[in-house]
From TrEMBL:
Its main location: secreted. It catalyses: 2 a phenolic donor + H2O2 = 2 a phenolic radical donor + 2 H2O. The gene is LOC100840634. This is Peroxidase. Belongs to the peroxidase family. Ascorbate peroxidase subfamily. The active site is at 76 (proton acceptor).
């Protein structure tokens, strides 16, 4: 899932049947889901999950891109000091600079209004009870479901950080030019396996990316690209810097607003939009080639692995000593 956001095998048919158990062993650096619980708000905010899903349904109906954007926000939150809602904090000059201005987020992170709306409705029902980090975790799950993807049980009980680090965001979030070894190392540092990395990268089955992130790839800077595909993308993203920088192209050109396995089928054809996407499949015996082929041919396997990896990533905790609270407004500390 580099910084980044209908086939005949639509995953939506699996969504109801697939409810992934959250008794997954979360081992490795930074992963510790033991403090979270499926029943955390059962007594204090029992209507929370329908509230968040309703808010997300409205947001995605108004703009289907919102689903991919919120999913990306959750990834960018969890990969920077754990799932603590820090990505949601606005800058507060002159004393505070958050993560929104970091390179992987600047001009591309979106979906904040959908999270705000869900949080506002949660506040109306259960004042000062539900963390922004938990709202974001639920919103990301619901975004996937609303786009036809799998369901999973979200463990809850996260708290919100009172601070954020632009430097940490720049250091921890993989970029669109990342190579396979860099991607594997980045995910391993979070206790996530190579299989987790490849499954989570499948989030790029929905959403768009800006020309800035793939210009070099489609304009002769990348050998492993389908020529017909590159020529088509170049029409909106010419080689000249500054021309069409913010033009968008779908990460999955087959079904850009459907959460399915079309992304992996595209990789088999050398149609990965980002360099980091295509790094998952070289066709020459790369370490993830076999898994990409399996996901491309087996929508259910991808859906199951993706859901499990999301649960695992959602267990990433803030570093010890991080000041935490339940924010009333997701954009600023209390």
């Amino acid at each position: 899932m580099a910084a980044f956001v209908i086939s005949s095998a639509r995953i939506s048919t699996l969504a109801v049947a697939l409810l992934v158990a959250t008794t997954i062993s979360c081992r490795g650096a930074g992963v510790a889901a033991a403090t979270l619980s499926n029943k955390y708000y059962d007594k204090t905010c029992p209507g929370l999950q329908p509230i968040v899903r309703s808010a997300m349904a409205q947001a995605v109906a108004a703009d289907p891109r919102t689903g991919a954007s919120v999913l990306r926000l959750f990834f960018h939150d969890c990969f920077v000091n754990g799932c603590d809602g820090s990505v949601l904090l606005d800058d507060a000059p002159p004393g505070f600079t958050g993560e929104k201005g970091a390179g992987p987020n600047l001009g591309s992170a979106r979906g904040f209004e959908a999270v705000d709306a869900a949080k506002a409705q949660a506040e109306a029902a259960c004042n000062a009870t539900v963390s922004c980090a938990d709202v974001l975790a639920l919103a990301a799950r619901d975004a996937v479901g609303l786009l036809g993807g799998p369901a999973w049980a979200v463990k809850l009980g996260r708290k919100d950080s009172r601070t954020a680090s632009q430097a940490a965001a720049n250091a921890n979030l993989p970029g669109p030019g990342s190579g396979l070894s860099s991607l594997l190392a980045s995910f391993a540092a979070k206790g996530l396996s190579a299989r987790d990395m490849t499954a989570l990268s499948g989030a790029h089955t929905v959403g768009r990316a800006r020309c800035l992130t793939f210009r070099a790839r489609v304009n002769g800077g990348d050998a492993g690209v389908n020529a017909t595909f590159a020529a088509r993308i170049r029409q909106g993203c010419p080689a000249t810097n500054g021309v069409g920088d913010s033009s968008l192209a779908p990460l999955d050109g087959e079904t850009p607003d459907a959460f399915d396995n079309g992304y992996f089928r595209g990789l088999l054809q050398q149609r990965g939009l980002l360099h980091s996407d295509q790094e998952l499949f070289s066709g020459g015996g790369g370490s993830q080639d076999s898994l990409v082929r399996k996901y491309a041919g087996n929508a259910g396997m991808f859906a199951s692995d993706f859901a499990r990896a999301m649960v695992k990533m959602g267990g990433l905790e803030p570093a010890a000593g991080t000041p935490l609270e339940v924010r009333i407004n997701c954009r600023k500390p209390n």
